[in-house]
């Protein structure tokens, strides 16, 4: 299969469509994470459908002092990767094609969710992101659009925009792809020196530490629910290898679901250690949030949550997250 390279919406609209069109939006510098998105799009579109990959470095979502000018442009390599992953077309428009009148006067506002976490660190970023996503949805006219879970707040805002503004498109999330050492795949990883990369691994290690703490607490809660509060309970807990007294185990098990504070503390410990590395990790935020609005969850929270982190290593800013389920929902 030969993947078509298109630069205008007119050329894309002229293509004959059979089945569903699935779109993967990127800013280029494609890697295995993008390839996973494209392969997932291929499965959804099916043999009769069409997979379109957009490549556009959106100036609206870069703030002052960010890396717009040095953001990698690798269109030839992107086209090759997209073709190998199963894309039918790569849509790589110019800024004039996307914004024919210059910077748009009318833009999408991300609202309160867009002012938290990434939005607080990068004011205006999500307004620019949603504006270009809205534009590209109109330009590509897909039935389904796929986005990576690594950009969890972006994903949540896109879903909210599509719902609030009645876009006729399905939004599909694809799990984060990681390198063998755990680092989440990102186009910005190429900026890291070998020493900086070692420090950057603290982001994923912190998330996994929080996840492990959460899993241990949930396992203890499940064990406690299965054993009556009697002498048999103490004997059963002992048989399971618990070293604490049954009363202590019961107190932990019946505490607030999953212990969000303990999850945060386990992750924070790893990040605090990395702050003393050479080069150091400079933490932007660590948050455990409700994915519906990205507000911090409290002690009594049950349901889906996201443990998210952002930090800078040298001149490179990285983000990562893991989904968790708290309490009865797990």
Automatic annotation (TrEMBL):
Coiled coil: none annotated. The active site is at residue 34. Its EC number is 6.3.2.1. Its main location: cytoplasm. HAMAP family: PanC (MF_00158). Belongs to the pantothenate synthetase family. This is Pantothenate synthetase. The lineage of its organism: Bacteria, Bacillati, Actinomycetota, Actinomycetes, Kitasatosporales.
